[in-house]
Design a protein that fits this description.
TIM Barrel, Aldolase_TIM
């Protein structure tokens, strides 16, 4: 443990588990932009004023940016960039792909214009072959953006489907996910987002074996897990340490960071999160 002397925080005399400074490549926290909670630039600025040093990126889920004026989307991007955070799309390319290659090219062009840095390539709703995923990754990279494929084991994941609806669909093989992830990384993907549905969301029992297989197969530094539920991000840190890359709601930043730094927790984690300084 070490004092968090590199960060501007109060009560810095209390030792913390080590956290690297931004820009981080491990222990990243990505937060949700407006979607379930509708908010504007003043609220986002407040979030960064309070907790910006713990936020590595923001993600517009479900194509929500397509419902907002372009100048507002750009204003969100400007605030994120001013605070050293990237801007990512969420799952929406499934919608764009239905309208052909020209629509995809226009999507990437306009994404850059409004300040996006990362394009998430979600495949929960579509049957996309691995070769097609590779070509999409290459197209995104060629457009000057970072590619972040989102992979999961639950067919129909990534939207607002209920547990009963998803239970009626079949699950995918974990080995296939790992293979697709490796090929996407080889094609130039920056990181792989792991869909929570089928692992820790909309399941009767968590599929922790799937999470372990993904980490062992792709490497902890190459994956980011959806974990927008306190017990979920606690489980990842308890089992894999405070350098897991996690996606949470913007309301959970300080709760997650308190756990990462070992300043708080519950009976299972309190005082147990350790990461020696380099």
């Amino acid at each position: 443990m070490s004092n968090a002397i590199d960060f501007d925080v109060s009560m810095n005399f209390v030792p913390r588990a080590h956290r690297s400074a931004k820009p981080r490549t491990i222990g990243m926290t990505e937060i949700r932009a407006p979607y379930y909670s509708t908010f504007g630039t003043r609220h986002l600025q407040d979030v960064f004023d309070v907790a910006g040093q713990w936020v590595d990126g923001i993600k517009w889920a479900g194509g929500s940016f397509s419902l907002v004026p372009a100048e507002q989307v750009k204003a969100f991007s400007d605030i994120a960039h001013e605070n050293g955070a990237y801007v990512s799309s969420g799952g929406w390319i499934e919608t764009v792909l239905r309208y052909g290659d020209d629509a995809v090219d226009q999507y990437l062009k306009e994404a850059k214009e409004v300040g996006f840095d990362v394009i998430e390539i979600s495949t929960g709703f579509i049957m996309l072959p691995t070769s097609g995923l590779e070509r999409l990754v290459e197209k995104v990279v060629k457009a000057g953006l970072k590619a972040k494929p989102e992979l999961g084991i639950q067919i129909g994941s990534g939207g607002d489907s209920g547990e009963a609806e998803l239970a009626a669909e079949s699950a995918k093989d974990i080995g296939d996910l790992v293979d697709r992830g490796k090929r996407a990384l080889d094609a130039g993907a920056a990181i792989i987002m792991i869909e929570s549905e089928g692992i820790t969301e909309n399941v009767d029992e968590w599929n922790t074996a799937a999470a372990a297989s993904i980490i062992n197969g792709l490497g902890l530094e190459n994956v980011m897990f959806e974990a927008a539920d306190g017990p979920v991000f606690e489980w990842y840190i308890k089992n894999y340490g405070n350098e897991c890359n996690l996606f949470v709601d913007h309301s959970q930043i300080l709760q997650l960071e308190g756990l990462r730094q070992n300043i708080w927790g519950n009976k299972s984690t309190w005082g147990r999160v350790i990461n020696p300084a380099p």
